[in-house]
Each structure stands twice: as structure tokens, then as C-alpha cells.
């Protein structure tokens, strides 16, 4: 549970940001990459990033686990569309703060050797961290940043229309006079109190925020609350790449009409043979045959679950259909 303690001054200083923050999105996307949640929306993105992620960027997976604490210094909240300034801020973090937060991340357990060098702020480790963040952003976020921004902006507009009440789970925003001090309780992965103490609160829409809001672990840092925005129940890659990649006519000439439609329907989500048949109004036998031919071409992968077979695009299939702008 996250308990956010407002004073009357905090309600006056409540601020809703319109655009996503690149450093927070980088951090939250690493969580999303490590934990297979919301497969419908993020599954194909996850598959694509794991396939294309530079080897040097995989050190970030040491710092950001699938669940639990990750160092606060990885997400300076600077705004903007490009992570350059944010990455510079990460690399300029004081050595003591880096060492303290790495201790929180790993505790008394084993830790990768390179993180010990980073805790000492050795130049080679700092440069490696910078390269890893730049390489990761270029593969995982930059190709889709325009779409990420559009979705986040819609979420921020909805928050403004509702005076942030939906985000903070309130029926009505308390007035300054009637509620000089208010505590808002939000679902969270751990027990934490956020004392605003007149500093106000900045609400930031977060594309890769899965379910619950997110904030800094360190209470002395500026009060920020990242909140999840609504996603359409379909792979966001298909929406982000709308209008790019091969046209329907090209796909039909390459594969035939029905197989092209099978590819398109698999670009939206993982489907069983029966679901393909129902969506395209064809027989199960025909759906199975088309999936088998696409599998033989390396565009589709199939896996049996009990009495059903589930089909999904391979990295090659994703690359074919979803060419980022």
C-alpha cells in the first residue's frame, strides 16, 4: 500500500504533466521486459526487443529486476522527448548515492562484478552504463516514441478532466478548507509512505506502467507519481506501426489473401487455431494449414497447450509486419 499524505498546500500544487518522461519509461519498460504481464498489449514488443536488444544493454537487466526495487538514480525526472540529458544526469550521480542504492538493490546477495565497479564509479563502468542506456532506448523506445507520447497525452487529458480524482482513487478532490490534511491510499507493491510536506505532487502518465502507480523509493526526492494509462486490447506495435510495413496488397501477392489475413490477425495477439478460424470465418482445418505454412516460412511459431495450439509471430514475422516509423 502507498499512502500519500497531502496538506492543503499540496492540493494547490498538484501538477499533471502532459507528456511521458523518457527516463521513467525506460525504467518501467525494463520491468515490463522482465515480467511477462499484459501479453496482449506488450507481448510482441517484448519479443522484438529481446531479439534486437544490444548485448551491451543487457547489463540493465542486472539493475532492474522483474519485480522489486531498482535504483532511484536510474530515473531522473527531467521531461523532454530525448533521454540525452537524463542519461547524463544518471552518469553524474554522486558516487555515494550510487553505492547506497546498489546496496539496496542487491543487499547481501551476489551481485554482478561490473556493479561493484559502478559503485566505485570507475570510468569504464560509468561509460558502459551510458552506452547500455542509449542502445536500449534506441531499440526499445525511440521507434515508438511518437505513439507512446500520443497515448500518454490522452491519459493526461483524461486525468485533467477528472481533476486527477481517478488517479488518486477519489470521488471528489478535497477542498483546501475542508481537508487541510488528506491521506490517499493506493495499491502498491510494498508498504510505503509519501509525505508531500507542502512540496506538491507531479502526476506523470506512464505508457509502460502495468497496473499500479510508481514513485521513488527515497522520500527526499521530488514527489512524483507515475500512473498507468489505458491501452487498447491489442498489440501496441500494430498501432504504432500503422501505415508502415508492407501494404495489404503486397502481403496478398506474397502469401495469398487468407494467409495474409492470418498474419494480420496474429499481429494483434496470440491466437489458437480455433480463434483464427472464428476471426477469419474459415474452417479449423484451413486455419491449421495456413498456420503450418507460415510456420515453415519462419514467420509464425506454434506451441501446444493441452488440446489447443497457440500461434504467435516470430521475431521475423514481427519485423515483416511492424516496421517502425
Reading the helices and strands in chain order gives EHEHHHHHHHHEEEEHHHEHHEEH
Spatial sequence of strands, sheet with the most strands:
3-1-4
> What is the count of DSSP helices, taking H or I runs of 4+ residues?
15
The number of E-state strands comes to: 9
Describe this structure in words.
By secondary structure, the protein is an alpha/beta fold. The chain folds into three domains: 2-18 and 148-228, no CATH class; 23-145, no CATH class; 241-321, Arc Repressor Mutant, subunit A. 46% of the residues lie in helices and 14% in strands. It contains 15 helices and nine strands. The strands form three sheets. Strands 3-1-4 form a three-stranded mixed β-sheet. A hairpin with a 2-residue loop joins strand 8 and strand 9. Helix 7 packs across helix 8 and helix 12 (257-268) crosses helix 14 (284-296). The longest helix has 18 residues, at 123-140. One of its GO terms (molecular function) is DNA binding. Keywords: DNA-binding, Transcription, Transcription regulation. InterPro entries: ArsR-like_HTH, HTH_ArsR_DNA-bd_dom, Metal_resp_trans_reg, WH-like_DNA-bd_sf, WH_DNA-bd_sf. Pfam families: HTH_5. This is DNA-binding transcriptional regulator, ArsR family.
Amino acid at each position: 500500500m502507498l499512502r500519500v499524505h497531502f496538506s492543503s498546500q499540496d492540493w494547490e500544487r498538484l501538477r499533471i504533466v502532459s507528456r511521458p518522461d523518457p527516463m521513467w519509461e525506460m525504467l518501467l519498460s525494463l520491468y515490463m521486459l522482465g515480467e511477462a504481464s499484459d501479453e496482449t498489449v506488450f507481448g510482441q514488443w517484448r519479443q522484438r526487443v529481446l531479439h534486437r536488444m544490444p548485448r551491451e544493454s543487457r547489463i540493465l537487466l542486472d539493475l532492474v529486476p522483474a519485480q522489486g526495487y531498482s535504483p532511484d538514480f536510474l530515473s531522473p525526472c527531467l521531461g523532454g522527448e530525448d533521454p540525452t540529458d537524463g542519461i547524463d544526469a544518471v552518469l553524474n550521480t554522486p558516487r555515494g548515492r550510487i553505492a547506497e542504492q546498489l546496496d539496496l538493490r542487491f543487499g547481501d546477495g551476489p551481485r554482478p562484478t561490473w556493479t561493484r565497479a559502478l559503485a566505485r564509479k570507475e570510468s569504464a563502468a560509468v561509460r558502459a552504463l551510458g552506452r547500455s542506456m542509449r542502445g536500449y532506448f534506441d531499440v526499445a523506445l525511440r521507434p515508438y516514441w511518437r505513439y507512446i507520447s500520443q497515448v500518454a497525452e490522452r491519459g493526461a487529458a483524461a486525468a485533467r478532466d477528472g481533476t486527477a480524482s481517478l488517479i488518486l482513487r477519489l470521488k471528489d478532490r478535497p477542498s483546501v478548507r475542508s481537508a487541510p490534511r488528506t491521506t490517499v491510499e493506493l495499491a502498491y507493491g510494498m508498504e510505503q509512505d509519501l509525505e508531500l510536506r507542502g512540496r506538491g505532487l507531479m502526476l506523470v502518465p506512464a505508457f509502460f506502467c502495468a497496473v499500479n502507480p510508481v514513485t521513488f523509493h527515497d522520500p527526499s526526492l521530488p514527489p512524483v507519481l507515475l500512473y498507468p494509462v489505458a491501452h487498447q486490447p491489442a498489440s501496441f506495435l500494430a498501432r504504432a506501426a500503422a501505415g508502415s510495413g508492407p501494404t495489404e496488397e503486397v502481403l496478398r501477392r506474397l502469401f495469398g489473401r487468407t494467409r495474409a489475413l492470418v498474419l494480420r490477425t496474429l499481429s494483434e495477439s496470440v491466437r489458437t487455431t480455433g480463434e483464427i478460424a472464428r476471426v477469419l470465418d474459415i474452417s479449423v482445418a484451413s486455419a491449421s494449414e495456413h498456420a503450418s505454412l507460415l510456420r515453415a516460412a519462419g514467420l509464425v511459431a506454434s506451441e501446444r497447450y493441452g488440446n489447443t495450439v497457440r500461434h504467435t509471430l516470430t521475431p521475423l514475422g514481427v519485423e515483416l509486419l511492424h516496421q517502425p516509423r
